[in-house]
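Supplementary Methods. Inverse-folding protocol.

Structures were first reduced to a discrete structure-token string of length 261. This string, shown here, constituted the complete conditioning input.
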């Protein structure tokens, strides 16, 4: 079995559709659920090891949908609700089935907040602050957290198996050193939160900025993710696919998208 990187969720904080919204993007997703987007996260499946990257508030549904029934550890990119809100969902798996705590790799700056938010998970998760630039070896692939540009301490993750993949779910551009580390990566999955004006320019990117970042990294493929679809200018999947059609190697992320490594 090949190593795979699967996107569990590809939406920004509100998800698509949002319960309070009836824009064209949310209408499209209500009519056609394959265009709906749960909050962002991924799973690196190495066969014997399954590494969860971010625990979105939609985690339970994501694991059920993708028929994932075991986890080896959890890697959090940063301490924002749309990326950690589902941590509590692993409690009964650990207590009733696994009988052994899961290592939770998390930003050093998030340890105290984690302990304050989830005191009841003390015997379920073992917090282990990750280090930027350190290469975590999981056998068939390595995983290296690299600095991203976001409102709080945030990692993007460089995954190297037979192919290389950089996952930068929440970032605005990349620090120079990170940009250098991901040069020529086979697949870049990156933040494209905004369509139209970017009103959070120090945290996220627009579709245009994400495409430009893909070009700057020389990535073989650029996959746009963390899509709000209805910030600034609401857009449907059909419209957005037309808009990006002229950029070779650029495509949209979808929940459930699987990439071979
Ligand atoms: Zn996010
Ligand atoms: Zn909407
Ligand atoms: Zn964030």
């Amino acid at each position: 079995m090949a190593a795979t990187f699967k996107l569990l969720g590809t939406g920004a904080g509100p998800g698509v559709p949002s319960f309070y919204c009836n824009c064209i993007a949310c209408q499209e997703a209500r009519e056609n659920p394959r265009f709906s987007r749960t909050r962002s996260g991924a799973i690196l499946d190495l066969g014997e090891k399954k590494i969860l990257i971010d625990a979105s508030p939609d985690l339970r549904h994501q694991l059920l949908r993708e028929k994932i029934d075991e986890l080896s550890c959890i890697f959090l990119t940063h301490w924002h609700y749309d990326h950690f809100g589902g941590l509590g969902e692993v409690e009964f798996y650990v207590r009733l089935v696994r009988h052994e705590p899961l290592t939770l790799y998390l930003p050093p700056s998030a340890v105290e907040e984690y302990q304050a938010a989830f005191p009841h998970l003390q015997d379920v998760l073992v917090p282990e602050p990750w280090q930027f630039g350190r290469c975590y070896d999981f056998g068939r692939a390595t995983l290296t957290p690299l600095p991203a540009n976001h409102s709080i301490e945030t990692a993007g993750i460089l995954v190297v198996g037979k192919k290389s993949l950089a996952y930068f779910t929440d970032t605005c551009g990349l620090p120079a050193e990170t940009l250098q580390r991901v040069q020529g990566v086979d697949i870049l999955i990156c933040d494209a939160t905004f369509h139209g004006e970017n009103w959070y320019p120090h945290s996220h990117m627009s579709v245009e900025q994400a495409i430009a970042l893909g070009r700057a990294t020389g990535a073989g493929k650029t996959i746009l993710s963390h899509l709000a679809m209805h910030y600034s200018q609401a857009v449907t999947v059909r419209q957005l696919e037309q808009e990006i059609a002229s950029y070779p190697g650029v495509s949209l992320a979808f929940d459930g998208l699987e990439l071979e490594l």
